[in-house]
Amino acid sequence: MLKTIVKQGSYHDSVVLMLLTNQISAIKGVKKVSIMMATPANKDIYKQSGLDTEKLQSATANDMVVVADIEDETLSDTIMTEVEEFFKKQSTRNSKEEGAVSVKSWERALETLPQANLAVISIPGAYAALEAERALDEGLNVFMFSDNVTVDDEIKIKQKAHSKGLSVMGPDCGTGIIQGVPIAFTNHVAPGPIGIIGASGTGIQELTTIIDRLGAGVTNAIGTGGRDLSTYVGGITMLDMIEAMESDVSVKVLIIISKPPAKAVRDKIYNRLSNFTKPVITLFLGEKPEYHEENFYHTYTLDEAARLAVSLVRGEEIKTPEVIIDRSKCFKAEEKKTIKAYYSGGTLAGEAAMLMKDALNIQVPPEKVDGFMLTTAGHVVVDLGDDVYTQGKPHPMIDPAKRIECMKEAIDDESTGVILLDIMLGYGSHEDMAGALLPSIIELRDKAKAENRKLFFVATVCGTRSDFQGYDKAVNKLKNAGVIVCETNKLAVHTAILAIGLDFQEPEKKILPKTVSEIEKVETSKKLIQMLSEKPKVINIGLKSFSDVIEQFGCEVVQYDWMPPAGGDVKLIKTLNFLRNYESIDIDDANRKVIEKIVATQPVIMDVVPAKSVIKELNEGKVILHAGPPIDYKSMPNPMQGSCIGASLFEGWAENETDARNLLEAGEVKFIPCHHVNAVGPMGGITSANMPVFVVKNMTDGNEAYCTLNEGIGKVLRFGAYSHEVVDRLTWMKNVLGPTLSKAIKTMDNGLSVNPMIAKAIAMGDEFHQRNIAASLAFLKEMSPIITKLNMDDKDRYDVMKFLADTDQFFLNIMMATGKAVMDAARMIKDGTVVTAMCRNGVEFGIRISGMGDQWFTGQVNTPQGLYFTGYDGEDACPDMGDSAITETFGVGAMAMIAAPAVTRFVGAGGYEDALRTSTDMTEITIDRNPNFIIPNWNFQGICLGIDARLVVEKGITPVINTGIAHKIAGYGQIGAGTVHPPIECFQKAIEAYAEKLGFSI
């Protein structure tokens, strides 16, 4: 049976998940298992493996999915326990190590390491080019370990790099050394005067390790990626790095290694190298050059290239050792025995196929198929690192399983005389591959002996004595098991060929005069010279193990814990890139102007008046304002409809509930969103003509905003209640509370400034959405001396004072009007991506951004999650409503959860640490901090300032909103409180629309 488990928002690197898959597959009763991120490409792999499920298809690129074919359903618990333990051990191990600083965004990475000059990218290929573009835009060179990048993308990023004087090493670049620092799958090599530029990972490893073991060294070895010398790419990286290596004073000899280039590219490379002022060695695998030129050498094998380079550095000949094998024990050629060669890298496999071709006098196909570099007359050379073997599975450098399977198949072929293999040491490789293969080698050796068959095992160990696995240790393990271990791949292949009774000859090469071609001199990039002459400062995007190694070599490194931006949606990623690089408008500068305006605003309570006196639309017949984006009565959730009934009764449009419903259903009432008339309203947001509203004026810009007065808690209109008690309270607020506050405020010469009350209250533990008690008391402090002096009925005076004292949430509505006044002023800046409004109507959640003016971008509203009053649960809850999220837009509410630890458990946040995490997460999607409102228990930092819709989409972090929870049936009122998140599609639609407005299309 197939069991699918989805871990939402749990991103892990593919190599880590491959290792985990191997561990889970060993559990008894697990027939087949795959653990991957649910990217579109990985979903195809699941399907090909027969592990496709409906639950898998509904997962996103940021979700980790376990699909297992198991014998017993109870095994799913065992699997998940193992998974949790695996990650727990990783977490514990990482926490104990002195590791690189970890960040979750480009912004934080660049803040942490502003002098970074290299981005190492090891993420899925679908996103790698996009992140490489970002790195180049930030002035960083790129080492791209990732594969599966399109040719078009490679051309684009390499051309961009060239224009900026930078370099892109890769894609599919597995190996590099910069200033002696190993990058990716690389060996610990001594530094020295030999420079290498290669389109081959394992080829560079073989060269550098031979050079190291000969006592010389390599300071810089630059990988270009396998397609760099194709017609399409044109050798961009290779040519740029040749220029840089010539200017690098530490390079005395240069080696160039690649598969044969396209002819036009070959001509460019040869012409440039013919002018190279230092000795240069070329190795184009598969070609058999017949001569050298003066200071321009053309080699046949990796062994020859490495020894020649050391000879040139030392000024003495370094000869290739003789093959050591007892030829009397070898097969005769007429026995027609075959070689089965299983390699973990394409270059060594390619070299083996080339040498065997010479010995067998056959032609090797120009392109490998399914990893086979050679398959003829029973002879096989396979690159087990080919994509066909590694899709969704660990690379053979770290997992012996596929090679063991191949060796067991080889032993069943009676023609097999030699099993040939490589052991790759170094960073990124298995900690003991020789030890992992040894039991199978011994088993197969003994099986051959039992069948009275002769079988040679021949191996080469690619490594140095400084590699953590131990070169001599690996060699001795193999030798002790009867394996013939050769110093280089060429020697190993030659040994295998001799073992089956064949041989090949390498031509003696003469040195001819060098033909120097005319070339157009180009200026060497100073940035590339600098990259080769300094230890890299690295932002590592992907595999953490790369960070660990780089740091061991004394480099500054930041670990970017990458997750697919924009939920893995490539169109959205390209949209974000367009906005980031848009030149006609500096969007970052526009956003800064928006937040500067927010900081500069001076909101003041000017009055409390009937809504109709400041909102002219309320004088045009029966009109009701509502919260959220536009909605008609029939579409409203039940509590909002209940609020409309209450408003109709309050205004005297109907005498009872039935008449009110008939009136509303007949369409006799016009509905307008509060936001459309400079107003906001909590929960249902229902505002009618005679309801008193606060008038808050932004003195800096002159605009006003309005909000009804807070009714208190319990059965109230904003939560959908409409009983006589509710209507009577509204009438009292109209006749007594509103006029009293109006008189008190008017006694102040310039109104009541809001900012000082906010600043005081946030320091006292308010966050201004769920907790307003300090601010409400600060307001009462300002009002009470004045109210006591007013000429009014004593009972009314007492009732007003008592109501203000009892209503802990009274300031919420002032905060809402303030947020509206401030954010409407910010909307005067017509560019940028700052969120200027967030609201919900129980059906849709809507946002506005600065660059799109009044336009709403909507998505289906969510239901809050939190704590419920006794007797209620989530089944009773209404989807979220209200304009009160204007507080979060302003930077308070849940955005400032850390300011109000007393309220965190009430809204389901858990406690102080959760509150801290919540507010810290919000800094990931905001532009700055507001210095006007300092939070003492947040190290005296300001509240979050300016939600950037781009960051929301890029990081998949939506703003968190504190909210009350209404019963889904009108009349019950509030049943709890909690938090809610907007649907991310609102923000996606907003940035897509803004990009389209600026001319973007895809």
From TrEMBL:
GO CC annotations, alphabetized: cytosol; succinate-CoA ligase complex (ADP-forming)
Domain of life: Bacteria
GO molecular function: succinate-CoA ligase (ADP-forming) activity; succinate-CoA ligase (GDP-forming) activity
Start and end residues of each ATP-citrate synthase/succinyl-CoA ligase C-terminal domain: 343-496
Domain (CoA-binding) ranges: 193-281
Gene Ontology biological process terms from the UniProt entry: tricarboxylic acid cycle
Protein name listed in UniProt: Acyl-CoA synthetase FdrA
